[in-house]
Design goal:
Rossmann fold, two-stranded parallel ribbon, 303 residues, 18% strand, 39% helix, alpha/beta
Length: 303
């Protein structure tokens, strides 16, 4: 297959591209500079431009690009950047896909479990409505931006990804050094649920979305066993053989992170109902297994 990927240099995009190439697929990367190699396609989502002709003949397009949610404090300016990077990129790509003479059979468009907002101890699946706040409203608009592709008859799947357990990057990549140094601890009271997924299973699930013709619309990419932050802390300590004695007070997180702290201290207990119903099998379904896989080398398919 020929698969086009945006966000190909990010944590998930890099792992996905490596996995696909290892199995003999052709991967082309959408880049924000003039294409300099046969596997590059130029695009500029901020100016709503993409070399649509170069997308012709792709079997699938996987859209993972967007400004990092946890990379900066949430000022109003950065929230605009987060929003624009997702909406403009998705709309640009969806419109380009819809215009093709030979469109891909599937567009897998990134989304997030932030769609559900705060759920407390209540479990939710893809049938749940959006929550309240910045992230839920962003996710709603983000998914709506792909409408041109859907209307053109392209199977469109929204990969609502949870917290990716990986050593190399993302939010979890920040936790590993702290826990290895013996400085890790629960966040706030530790009772908030974290819906996680190993990087290996994230990549495998994205490939499952590409290959499974019956899947469209929202699909939660989270492990089937969401756990509390207190349980995450214990698992990190067990796997890394380090003490976890230093809880981070909620007030300190709010001071440092601002509005982002609500996402860190909030609770989301999300289940991957549609993924499981479609026959997907998790390699690392528990938090101990996911952390152990992340701590080891070669924990992504094809690595």
């Amino acid at each position: 297959m020929r698969i086009a990927i945006t966000g190909s240099t990010g944590l998930i995009g890099t792992a996905l591209g490596r996995s696909l190439r290892a199995d003999g697929h052709e991967v082309v990367r959408l880049v924000r500079h003039p294409a300099r190699a046969a596997d590059e396609i130029e695009w500029d989502p901020t100016r709503r431009r993409v070399d649509a002709h170069a997308l012709n003949g792709s079997d699938a397009v996987v859209h993972l690009a967007g400004a990092g949610i946890g990379d900066h404090r949430w000022t109003e300016a950065y929230k605009r950047r987060i929003r624009d990077s997702r909406l403009l990129g998705t709309a640009t790509l969806a419109e380009a896909v819809a215009s093709l003479d030979s469109p891909p059979r599937v567009l897998v468009s990134g989304s997030a479990i932030g769609f559900y907002g705060y759920t407390g101890e209540r479990t939710v699946d893809e049938s749940a409505p959006p929550g309240d706040g910045f992230l839920p409203s962003l996710c709603v608009e983000w998914e709506e931006a792909a409408l041109p592709a859907e209307e053109a008859g392209v199977r469109t799947v929204f990969a609502r990804t949870g917290l990716v357990v990986a050593r190399e990057g993302g939010a979890w990549g920040r936790l590993f050094p702290l826990f290895r140094a013996g400085l890790g601890g629960r966040l706030g009271d530790g009772r908030q649920y974290w819906s996680f997924i190993s990087l290996h299973d994230e990549v495998a699930a994205l490939r499952h979305l590409i290959d499974t013709d019956t899947l469209e619309g929202p699909v939660n990419l989270t492990a089937p066993t969401p756990v509390t932050n207190r349980e995450v802390t214990a698992a990190m300590g067990r796997v890394l053989h380090r003490p976890t004695l230093f809880p981070v007070p909620a007030v300190a997180l709010r001071t440092v992170l601002g509005e982002l702290s609500a996402d860190v201290l909030g609770s989301q207990r999300v289940l991957p109902k549609r993924l499981l119903e479609s026959g997907f099998t998790f390699a690392f379904p528990t938090i101990d297994e996911a952390v152990r896989a992340a701590a080891a080398q070669g924990n992504t398919p094809g690595a």
